[in-house]
Amino acid sequence: MRMFLMLRLFLVSLFIVFGTVSAKAQTDPLPSWNDGVPKKAIIELVGRVTKEGGPDFVPVPERIATFDNDGTLWCEQPFYVQMAFAFDRVKVMAPQHPEWKTKQPFKALLQGDVKTAATAGEKGLLAVIAATHSGMTVSQFEQEVRDWIKVARHPRFKRPYNELIYQPMVEVLNYLRANGFKTFIVSGGGVDFMRPWAPASYGIPPEQIVGSSGVIEFRLGKNGKPELFKTPKVQFIDDGPGKPVGISMSIGRQPIIAFGNSDGDLQMLQYTTAGSGVRLGLYVHHDDAEREYAYDRKSQIGRLDKGLDAAAKNGWPLISMKSDWKVIFPFEVK
After folding, report:
1. Pairing of strands 226-236, 209-220
2. For an engineered disulfide with 164, which of 44, 51, 75, 274 has Cβ 3.0 to 4.6 Å away?
3. Tell me: the pLDDT tens digits for 26-80?
4. pLDDT (tens digit per residue) in 97-132
5. E strands along the chain, which residues?
6. Which of 267, 295, 269 is nearest to 282 (CA)?
7. Pfam families recorded for this chain (predicted)?
8. Domain boundaries, the chain
């Protein structure tokens, strides 16, 4: 009888221990995050702004969260994904443009020499974007993006680019939405490039995606059918100081929490944290060369220099990929 009682007590204790662990796992809103300053700051902000009657309560319509995309929600190295799309489009379109065989940076791209193409600088790369992102309707372009995202593979990870979204950030998006937040992408990337695939990856609808854009014209196509036509002219660059402008034009409300990873996000974080009430700006810091990439001040892609200093000055938490994230990509989750 005594042995039976001891065994029963042992089983009960196991149930209590594992039950507690299981309950903790179920109640943890950010299970892919290690306990640390960024995780604590996010959870504390949500708790304060959602506590009715509390001094920091924020009504649901004012709970706005903004996220940069490249380097914040998905991998941006060794070059921006939209540039990879443009480079591939150059090869597809080359038969209709024989002049590209001798014209840089198109010549280098056709030869697979991305380094030489990069020496053309911003002007040359914008010429590539203009050539590969125009001359068709918006719906045609969106289909090109959908077809490409299905077959394109990252040069290092050998996986589709939309599988290289960050699992911890997807959890943040879900956690914020579960607490009444509207989540927006505010990216320097093209809005027409993001809208075909981002809603399925992040749960963010097209109307909540803010990005750079070219001039679009309304035309009457074949048989008088109305269509929107993409031209090579630049309309708006949603980067740096353009991000707060884009937020004002497209959202009409000041965010109370914003996530970025580069100097291009600095003004968005400044704008977000300058308002009254509880506010938070966070930077994703790429410091894990083994699982992803390590870069900040000297990087040509996603440079974090002025933003790194501003984070220290303003008390914006740095999200360390190496220390704060248990996993990086969804396919690592077991």
Report:
1. antiparallel
2. 75
3. 589 999 999 999 999 999 999 999 999 999 999 999 999 999 999 999 999 999 9
4. 999 999 999 999 999 888 888 888 878 888 999 999
5. 64-67, 136-137, 182-190, 209-220, 226-236, 257-260, 280-285, 318-320
6. 269
7. HAD
8. 30-77+164-332
